[in-house]
Amino acid sequence: MEQTASVNTDPGHRSVTNGRCSQWRNWTGFWFLGLCNNFAYVVMLSAAHDILKKQESENGTAPTPPTVAVDFQGRNSSNSSRYDCNPVSTAAVLLADILPTLVIKLFAPFVIHNLPYGVRVLFCVIVAAASFLLVSLSTAVWISILGVIFASISAGLGELSFLSLTVFFTRDVLGGWGSGTGGAGVAGAFLYSGFTQIGLSPQITLLIMLVVPFAMLISYFILLVPPPSFPQWRSRTMEYTAVGSEERQRLVDDSDQEQQEKSTPADDRSTGPLTFTEKLHVSRGLLKFVFPLGLVYFAEYFINQGLMELLYFPNFFLSHAEQYRWYQTLYQVGVFVSRSSLCCVKIRKVWALSLLQVVNAVLLLFAVRYQFLPSALLVFVIVLYEGLLGGAAYVNTFYFISKETEDRQREFAMAAASVGDSLGIALAGVAAFPIHRYFCSL
User: Fold this and answer.
1) Domains in the chain: how many in total?
2) Whole domain around residue 403: which residue ranges?
3) Residue 312: pLDDT band by 50, 70, 90 thresholds?
4) Where is this region: Disordered (predicted)?
């Protein structure tokens, strides 16, 4: 008997299949957007340091006095301090890398709605590519510094834009974004170290990494499946006007009272963009999210930039540089794991994470002062735990902002709240200077 293969032509089945495919593509797209957005920011500090050091040795214009000879990890080779530290804190470079991002996050949310999302992404890609080119091809110190600033601008504008973009998709894309930003730390550090370890120069390594900004273009314009009404090349002000007119006309034409009641909230949400006064009101309401997030990042970057290079164990089998490198690597691994955990666990009380991170900072501060920790292995565990706390605070903060903010306010709220981590990092950089100076003077 002849048999024929059955083909499912049910429109409902096709709709469900397409929906799942779109959902998976969007999650993956935001994962790559998070990775690409933070990638330049992650690699730029170490890459700029290598190239600046090479320029100084070649040009001979900035010889390092014998009393401040330093290696890559901030080790002072002729310092009499018992901490074997660099007289200039690594927080100095951190501030140069974070301040442009902080300025953007403070002011851009109030005006960024006038710039279409497509234009924002193109700008971020161009600036990120320019950062790699400037640092790799620079012939002067100030050009390399300008490249680091460009990387900071791209990362800051990209973060607040992509967080705002999540409101047009299902909430699970926040998990993809968070995981991708965590992955940027691991991938950036691993790839840069790997390429230079096999013999490639920092300049060639950065030129190879130009593929990353173009991967952002592919992720955004090809991989994502935005809703049909998404304002790709229109500003949000124009979109509010157009949607508001369509909704009002639909309500006039629709005589069904039940349908009219269902449509009224959408009409209220589309009456126009938030005014400046409304944005200030929303910003005040975000303090309950922003302050705990900022405190988490203040504590962890105070550890990373103020204390980590001072946690040196001379009798350990790893050198000072290798110990520092593993501290940073394990921290990034912790961040990646916790930023990928949103699908498994959600933590509403970010305050608890903040307090635990402060405990970490206080513990390590006393450990530096009194040197009571027996081995670097214990520090490895602590910094891994530190990364877990920081990553969990980040993804849960934005998840609950997305969940608890009104529809009309959500896009602005996601962008405005992104200032929390950058503000905490900047304050940590400032606080690390006197602490570092004090310990290095002992």
Assistant:
1) 1
2) 18-233+274-440
3) confident
4) 245-272
